[in-house]
Amino acid sequence: MPRSPGSAAEVFDRAGTVILVLADEDAVDAVLGRGTPDFATRVAGHTVVHMGTTSPEYSAALEAAVRDAGGAYVEAPVSGSRVPAEQGQLVAMLAGDATAVTAVRPLLAPLCREAFDCGPVPNALLMKLSVNLFLITQVTGLTEAFHFADRHGLDRARFLDVLDAGPMASAVSRMKAPKLLARDFSVQAAATDVLKNNRLIARAAREAGLASPLLDVCHALFDETVANGHGGEDMVAVLRALEARTDGTHPGVPADDGP
């Protein structure tokens, strides 16, 4: 059985295409050795596939740096959380040089049931942020509706049955509704990660001069969820922020876009 690489440098020595699924921009820079002589040595002649969620402007600058050093670069963020990943049901968004994108596409097939070309960098990340804006507002809306039904004394299971039988049912609601009913906050998509995405989307909206009123409300609620110690729980833990507002233990304040 081949020995696993012991360092990032060894990964680049042994692979022509390197897929990065890292937490943030600092982690990507550290693995690539960006800002050091190691950067050019690692990326020259390689294809770097960036699957993490970072700011679009960071990705665009990284693509330019990789290409200047003689490498190729593909953005490949995905839509989906832990369960779809385990089932190979993620949806990938691809951006970059057409030749590099074509070469990378089959490498993602074990994880992704579909992969969509989005054009040049950073369009794949902008597409991911657009999808996540819908996801965040959708799950927050579902959670608020559940809270509304609950506090009016309705049968919560019956409410979810009605929702599931109607036109608003979706793969997301069918995944999250049982968690709300059971108060199961085990992680599929952590509230901390949702807040990070919310901040990225809010920043992109501000830079483009776009109104984002629904996102801004969700931003404040997830900021409260994380501030109250629930960042490691699933995103349906935003229920805790709604309950705190209803019970008067948190009045609600505008969220900070963060660094």
From TrEMBL:
Lineage, uppermost ranks: Bacteria, Bacillati, Actinomycetota, Actinomycetes, Kitasatosporales
InterPro entries in alphabetical order: 6-PGluconate_DH-like_C_sf, 6PGD_dom2, 6PGDH_NADP-bd, HIBADH-like_NADP-bd, HIBADH-related, HIBADH-related_NP60_sf, NAD(P)-bd_dom_sf
Keywords of the record: NAD, Oxidoreductase
Domain 6-phosphogluconate dehydrogenase NADP-binding: 7-115
Protein name stated in the entry: 3-hydroxyisobutyrate dehydrogenase
Name of a matching Pfam family: NAD_binding_2
EC number: 1.1.1.31
Organism of origin: Streptomyces griseoloalbus
EC class: oxidoreductase
Keyword match NAD: yes
Family affiliation: Belongs to the HIBADH-related family.
Keyword NAD: yes
Residues the record marks as active site: K128
Superkingdom assignment: Bacteria
